[in-house]
């Protein structure tokens, strides 16, 4: 639940300062919180001078807000609200509409908003967003809803605690990078998993086996090692928002099974796993999950053809992504149990890939729902990059031309506007599309 604060700004000489508009709008905003999923955690008394603004600013910081709305009830000069603009918190500058349209000017609120946005505030490190309208107005609700979605992603990237279990997969040097957003990453060796495996009780494995109801190409007895791994992973993941797991080569070599079905079944229960030790991919997954309200997954671009781009991974996706029946099958390469085989459901997707140097790729498109390779797969038949529509081949050229690591973190639904706003709040540079197919790439 995001915490929002509200500071109304008034100039007593204006008629609109005496109409109780700040009280009515705060009550409406409180009601809107129940619908949009935020708490109105702090409401200041109307601010009419710099001293009151400084006191409101101090109280707003103490409230631990995710967003502060500075509400222009009427026009006011900059000295009245400048202390609020200097706060190191996300700010929304909001003007109420005029209560009448003829006769004496009641508020002049939008002019106050204009004045505020024209200011230079030395030292401010984050942008602000403007809002206009009553809380009941559709445009206001849409604009605020978009910001709330973006800030949920920001909160995930700043406050999540994740486990890096085993480090990156061998030779995947691009996965050495860590998020530069404040996310807490705790690195632990695979010894923690081996210890957890040894502690799994046969009776707990029996319980998992007793409720197993998924189609499988294996008899139940052959799946017991994967159930044991599932229980061990759940124990190691306890207390973390997500786990970046080095799931090969040590796990199949030591346990005789692949980790993918265990990861998939844990994802069904709300866990977030990133394969191959991809912490930056995990960060994208957590942000996408916070924005969409649905689990996010990592996928490879594994083929390009007349149907588009084949997106695929080894079989760790949750059933929420299934566009048809699921079944547990042997791993395509090692032949070991087990991976979850299923088509990815048709529909729009959105993606976020964080990159070193506080850069990011925001992308999206549409999955056809047609299954491809064994594991979880489908075709990306329409693509977009930072909201710009691209042909699949142009998308591929942009991805390769920017030398983006090979995991795409994708979530369900069209959320590129929220992802772009997320990047703005965090000060991340969003890379533009680079669809030139004849260019060269410098590996420097």
Describe what this molecule looks like in 3D.
- This protein is an alpha/beta fold and 444 residues long.
- It has 2 domains: 131 residues, Rossmann fold; 270 residues, Alpha-Beta Barrel (L-fucose Isomerase, Chain A, domain 3).
- Helices cover 35% and strands 25% of the residues.
- It is built from 13 helices and 20 strands.
- The strands form 3 sheets. The protein has a 6-stranded antiparallel barrel. Strands 2-1-3-4-5 form a 5-stranded parallel sheet, with helices on both faces.
- Strand 16 and strand 17 form a beta hairpin.
- The protein is elongated.
Question: What is the fold-level CATH name, i.e. the topology of the largest domain?
Answer: L-fucose Isomerase, Chain A, domain 3
Please report the number of helical segments: 13
- Describe the strand arrangement of the main beta sheet, using strand numbers: 11-12-17-16-15-19
> What is the CATH-assigned architecture of the largest domain?
Alpha-Beta Barrel
Query: Termini, distance in Å?
Result: 43 Å
Strand proportion: 15-25%
Overall pLDDT, averaged?
97
According to CATH, what is the class of the largest domain? Alpha Beta
Characterize the biggest β-sheet: 6 strands, antiparallel, barrel
Rg on CA atoms, Å: 25 Å
Domains (count): 2
Point out poorly predicted stretches: none
SS elements, strand count: 20
The SS-based structural class is alpha/beta
What sort of overall outline do the alpha carbons produce when their principal axes are compared? elongated
Percent of residues in helical segments? 25-40%
InterPro entries: Fucose_isomerase_N/cen_sf
Protein name: L-fucose isomerase
Keywords: Carbohydrate metabolism, Isomerase
Organism: Calidithermus roseus
